[in-house]
Amino acid sequence: MFTSKQIAKYAEVLLWGLSTSRTTPLARHDNVLVQFDLTAVRLAEVLFAKLMDQGLNVIARLTSTASMEVSFYQKSDEGQLTFVPPGTRELFQNLHGAMYILAPQSLTHLCRVDSQRIARHTLSRKSFRDILVQREEAGIFGWTLCIYPTREYAKCAGLTRQDFTGQIIKACFLDAPDPVAEWTRIHTQAMEIKNRLNSLKVQSFRVESDNVDLVITPGEKRRWMGISGHNIPSFELFLSPDWRGTQGVYYADQPSYRCGNLVKGVRLEFDKGEVVAVSAEQGEEFVKKQVAMDSGSNKLGEFSLTDKRFSNIDRFMANTLFDENYGGEHGNCHVALGSSYSDTFDGDPATLNEDMKSNLGFNDSALHWDLVNTESKRVSAKMSDGSSVTIYDDGFFIF
């Protein structure tokens, strides 16, 4: 559904994303992984060529098909379920960049698979994700992520494939003469908002909408991050809070696909930082299993707000990358259950060890699940002097 010119522009935006995600430039002969679904091979080929032109070592990896994934989870014994291919650790320890192109054939093919088996497989690979986190903290790794339009995405989003593709084009500025210039502009504007947010001495945030009344504690040594090149598109500004200060009720009015399951109307009640009650209009049992995945999956790892002036996304896209950046009429707030982002530490993340992260209230989990609320909302900040100030109202940051 993309023209050749749009594919080339998309690749340039992704290269901007990869470069921006790193604290230092890539060097000649650095190793970059390009992982993609078969449907996205056109974009992968263009990216491969451009990375080669930069003198990089490109490692191309095709993602398993839907049929392969079903066979894996249905047929694997415990040894196969947690099997790690030889060389995986060595590969991850030597990556300087990674680019992921999501173009799935199916979003629901795993709906009949026991979610606990998926969780065990995920947990078996957590140590490799931790390697990349450590490399990123050291400034020697960066990554970016995008989606490619498929019939399955469009069907699950309730759109035609043409309309689905149109959302990607306008969200990523692929119809602009110079999309990278547009992303640079957004990046600059977002930096101004982040600097203002980071200058505030905040004890806690309170999110209020028709169905949300949630208090979030940013914690010590935190900074707001966002529009860092990691996701294309990405318009959210976020931080990883001190999970111990989360209190109240959160409601995700936007649906979510995860592990082949569609969930709707997720309601979470927090007390002293932990989820104490879960309900959902659809997929409640699945949600409860996700919340119980490990010791950190019932705690918050992220709090995020999107300004609708940045985001052109105004439709549900059946993909978290787009849905967590929804602009629409009221912008969005989302929280993530599970792992936190150490780059929201206001200091050098490379200096953090596990004990320090724990003491600061950074959450650790194999889960990271973004749940989105698109209702009109007000977010206020309780300041260290006891005063209160509105920072976000009905889709806009207020400064």
What secondary-structure arrangement, pairings included, does this model have?
Elements: H1 4-21, E1 31-36, H2 41-53, E2 57-62, H3 66-75, H4 78-81, H5 88-92, E3 97-102, H6 115-124, H7 126-137, E4 142-147, H8 151-157, H9 161-171, H10 179-199, E5 202-208, E6 213-216, E7 225-226, E8 236-239, E9 247-252, E10 256-258, E11 261-263, E12 266-271, E13 274-279, H11 284-291, E14 300-306, H12 320-323, E15 332-338, H13 354-360, E16 368-373, E17 378-383, E18 388-393, E19 396-397
Parallel strand pairs: 1-2, 1-3, 3-4
Antiparallel strand pairs: 5-6, 5-17, 6-9, 7-8, 8-14, 9-12, 10-11, 12-13, 14-15, 15-16, 17-18, 18-19
What do you see in this structure?
This protein is an alpha+beta fold. It has 2 domains: 4-179, Thermophilic metalloprotease-like, CATH 3.40.1830; 201-397, no CATH class. 33% of the residues lie in helices and 25% in strands. The chain has 13 helices and 19 strands. It has helices at residues 4-21, 41-53, 66-75, 78-81, 88-92, 115-124, 126-137, 151-157, 161-171, 179-199, 284-291, 320-323, 354-360; strands at residues 31-36, 57-62, 97-102, 142-147, 202-208, 213-216, 225-226, 236-239, 247-252, 256-258, 261-263, 266-271, 274-279, 300-306, 332-338, 368-373, 378-383, 388-393, 396-397. The strands form 4 sheets. Strands 13-12-9-6-5-17-18-19 form an 8-stranded antiparallel beta sheet, covered by helices on one side. Strand 12 and strand 13 form a beta hairpin. The longest helix has 21 residues, at 179-199. It is globular and about 55 Å long.
